[in-house]
Each structure stands twice: as C-alpha cells, then as structure tokens.
Design brief:
This protein is mostly beta strands and 119 residues long. It contains no helices and eleven strands. The radius of gyration is 14 Å and the shape is elongated.
C-alpha cells in the first residue's frame, strides 16, 4: 500500500557528506514514523535514525552528532543528512515507514541505496 523510494546514496570520501531522501507514496494512510536502517557487509541490519510525525527522533549512538533526520509531513518525505562520514558508515541504507491502519501499524521498506565511504 505504501511505496518507498530512496535516493542520494553514492560514493563519498571520509569526512564528506551525503543527504539521503525517501519519498513515501501510494496510500492515503498516515505515515506515523519514518526512518533509516543500514546493513553493512557481515552485519545485522540496524537502526540509524527515525523520526515520528511530531518530530521526535531516535539515533544510533554511532551517528549521534554526525547525522540528522528530518521529514516533510506534507510530502511524506524523510531526509537523512550524513556529515563527517567514516569508513564504518559504508552500508546499504534502507528507508522504513510505519503507517496507521485502524489499530495496527503497518511497516514498509524501500529497496535500499548504497553508501560507500572511501579513505
């Protein structure tokens, strides 16, 4: 019911910046929370950052102070500003969205976008 499209990934040098965007479309459902997860080679998928419709945010400790998540509720778009990138940030980044449906929360995932940090 909800389609998520990520953009903004790519190759960046250590210390550089990228901004990821995720657009949610295809449903009249209200998007309660949007976020970003990442999965590095050989590791489990982990939460990077998330933001609720009221602006409440949640960050992984490893990215606090470097990454910032924001959203445009009107456009159902979430952004992840990634600064001071490190080699350890290399991963596939997945957009995540949670939508209300009656008493349930429905979870959706994007296709993922590759972020590669080189030194």
């Amino acid at each position: 019911q909800v389609q998520l499209e990520e953009s903004g990934g790519g190759l960046v040098q250590s210390g550089g910046s990228l901004r990821l965007a995720c657009i949610a479309s295809g449903s009249r459902l209200s998007i309660n929370r949007m976020g970003w997860y990442r999965q590095a080679p050989g590791k489990q998928r982990e939460l990077v950052a998330a933001i609720s419709i009221d602006g409440t945010t949640d960050y992984a400790n490893s990215v606090k102070g470097r990454f910032a998540i924001s959203r445009d509720n009107t456009k159902n778009t979430a952004y992840l500003q990634m600064n001071s990138l490190k080699d350890e940030d290399t991963a596939i980044y997945y957009c995540n969205a949670e939508a209300y449906f009656r008493r349930e929360i429905l979870v959706y995932w994007g296709q993922g976008t590759q972020v590669t940090v080189s030194s």
